[in-house]
């Protein structure tokens, strides 16, 4: 039961963006549970039309300046206007909501808040 709770907590932190090493630690039934849990929560969010896995309090600033310390496996994010490629060693200004999941997982580092 503790492992199921841990899987759920990790989902709320990362979604299904688990490191390969972490996924490898799950047995087959736990992997199946993760997929079903993901579908269940995403389906619920679609029904209520509210992303309950996002921060409920608004960010202090709309834009953040971030550093990309190392190459990210999936190094592209789709923004409202364009596709942004996150290259190792770059610094950029992006909407907070577009990189929130990367900030939470530590894949990018916030340098400062901008307006």
Write the layout of secondary structure elements.
Elements (H helix, E strand, L loop, with lengths): L1 H13 L5 H5 L3 H21 L14 E6 L7 E3 L4 E3 L4 E6 H10 L3 E6 L1
Antiparallel strand pairs: 1-4, 1-5, 2-3
Helix pairs in contact: 1-3
Textual characterization of the structure:
The protein is built from 4 helices and 5 strands, in the order αααββββαβ. Helices cover 43% and strands 21% of the residues. The model has no long low-confidence stretch (mean pLDDT 80). The strands form 2 sheets. Strands 4-1-5 form a 3-stranded antiparallel beta sheet, with helices on one face. The protein has 2 domains: 47 residues, no CATH class; 52 residues, 3-Layer(aba) Sandwich (Ribosomal Protein L9, domain 1), CATH 3.40.5.
CATH class of the largest domain: Alpha Beta
Cα separation of the termini: 44 Å
CATH architecture of the largest domain: 3-Layer(aba) Sandwich
Order of helices and strands: HHHEEEEHE
Number of domains: 2
Which descriptor suits the 3D outline? globular
Instruction: Provide the spatial order of strands within the biggest beta sheet.
Output: 4-1-5
- State Rg: 16 Å
Helical amount:
40-55%
């Amino acid at each position: 039961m503790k492992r199921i709770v841990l899987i759920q907590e990790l989902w709320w932190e990362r979604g299904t963006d688990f490191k390969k090493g972490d996924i490898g630690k799950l047995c087959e039934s736990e992997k199946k549970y993760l997929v079903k849990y993901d579908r269940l929560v995403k389906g619920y969010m679609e029904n209520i039309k509210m992303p309950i896995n996002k921060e409920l309090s608004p960010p202090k600033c709309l834009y953040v300046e971030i550093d990309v310390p190392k190459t990210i496996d999936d190094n592209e994010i789709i923004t409202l206007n364009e596709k942004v490629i996150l290259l190792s060693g770059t610094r950029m200004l992006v909407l907070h909501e577009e990189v929130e999941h990367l900030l939470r997982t530590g894949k990018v580092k916030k340098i400062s808040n901008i307006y």
